Amino acid sequence: MSDSTVMIIGANGLLGQKLVEFLSRGTTNNLVLAGRSAAPSVTVPDAVYVELDIGKKQDIRDAVTLHKPDVIINTAAMTGVDACEGEREQAWKVNVTGVENIVEAARRENARVVHLSTDYVFDGKEGPYSEEDRPEPINYYGRAKLASENHLRSSEVPFVIIRTMVLYGIAAEVKSNFALWLIRNLEERNPVRVVSDQTGNPTLVDDLAHAIISAVELQKTGLYHVAGREILSRYDFALKLADVFGFDRSLIQPVTTAELKQPAARPLKSGLVTLKAEVDLGYRPSTVIEGLTILKGQLSRGPKRLPDSAPIPGRKR
Ligand SMILES: NC(=O)c1ccc[n+]([C@@H]2O[C@H](COP(=O)([O-])OP(=O)(O)OC[C@H]3O[C@@H](n4cnc5c(N)ncnc54)[C@H](OP(=O)(O)O)[C@@H]3O)[C@@H](O)[C@H]2O)c1
C-alpha cells in the first residue's frame, strides 16, 4: 500500500487502537484517526485526529471531504449486545445509520470501505458458519449489524466486510472484554460464573488487525470470516485462561445461558469458518493458548490498567 490515506473510525476502541498501532509502524500510510472523544486514546506522530459521531451525517461528510481517505476502516459501533436490545433507536443510529453515513461519504470521495460485523448475524443453531451460510439474527444487535452489511453490499462502494467474534486483547482505556473480565476477577480470587453452552472461536484482536491490514493491502473486496483457530465453549476458554495465567480453576463455575437470563438472546452453537481468509489473506489465527500467552506478555509489559467495568460474560461482541 503506497502513499495511501487510511481513515480509522472508532480509533479509540480495542480494534481501532490495534489498527492504529500496526499501521503507524509502516511508513507509507497517512493516517487519519476518528473517534467520539475529544482527544485520541493514543497519539501517533504525524497522524491527524478528528472528533466525530458516525450517527451525524455532517460529521462524517466533513471529515471525509477534508481528508480524502483512500480507505475508510469502520470499527466504531455500539457493541453492548444487551444495551442494543434495550436502546434500539440508539443502536440503529450508530450501527446502521452510522454506516449509511460512512458509505455515502465514501461514495462521494471514491473511498473504499472496510466494515466490521459479527457472528451474531447467525442464529447459532448449527455453527460454525462460512461466508456462504444464511444469516438469521436472533437479537437486535445482530439484526442491525446485518442491516449495515446489506446496505454496504447494495451500495456502489468497493467494500470488505469482516465478521469476527469474541474479541480479546488489551489497549489503552478500552472497555473490558471477556478475557480481561476473567483476569481481573480471577486475580482477585473472585468466583466467576461462565456459560458452558455458548461455543465459538474467540479472537485475539492483534490477529484480526493483521487480517484487516492484509485485506487493505491486497485490495480485496467481499466478505471474510476472521476469528481464532479453536472452537470451544466460553467455560473451556476460561479454564485455558486460568492455566496460562496461573489462576485457580476451581473459581470458575459453569452455568447455562438460560440460567444467566441475559436480556438479549445469544446464538449458542456459533463459530466462524476462516478458510477463505486463510487462503486469500494469508491469515494465520492463534490458538487459544498462543493468544492468551501473547496477551499475558502484553499485560506484563504494562502500563495498561485493566478496565474497572466488569461486564457479564458474553455481553460485549
Ligand atoms: N468486541 C467483540 O467481541 C466483537 C465481536 C464481533 C464483532 N465486533 C465488531 O468489531 C468492531 C470493533 O469492536 P471493538 O471491540 O473494538 O469495539 P469497542 O472497543 O467498543 O470500540 C468501538 C468504538 O466505537 C466508538 N463509537 C461508538 N459509537 C460511536 C459513534 N456514534 N461515533 C463514533 N464512534 C463511536 C466507541 O467510542 P466510545 O468509547 O466513546 O463509546 C469505541 O471507541 C465493532 O464493529 C464490533 O461490532 C466486536
Give a verbal description of the structure.
The protein has 317 residues and is an alpha/beta fold. The chain has two domains: 4-167 and 204-225, NAD(P)-binding Rossmann-like Domain (Rossmann fold), CATH 3.40.50; 169-201 and 230-270 and 287-300, Alpha-Beta Complex (UDP-galactose 4-epimerase, domain 1), CATH 3.90.25.10. Helices cover 39% and strands 17% of the residues. The protein is built from eleven helices and 13 strands. The strands form four sheets. A seven-stranded parallel β-sheet has the order 3-2-1-4-5-6-11, with helices on both faces. A two-stranded parallel sheet has the order 7-10. Strands 8-13 form a two-stranded parallel ribbon. Helix 5 (140-153) links the parallel strand 5 (112-118) and strand 6 (159-164). The longest helix is centred in the N-terminal third of the chain and has 22 residues, at 88-109. It binds NADP nicotinamide-adenine-dinucleotide phosphate. Residues 10, 12-16, 35-37, 53-55, 75-79, 94, 98, 116, 118, 164-167, 174-175, 316-317 line the site of NADP nicotinamide-adenine-dinucleotide phosphate.
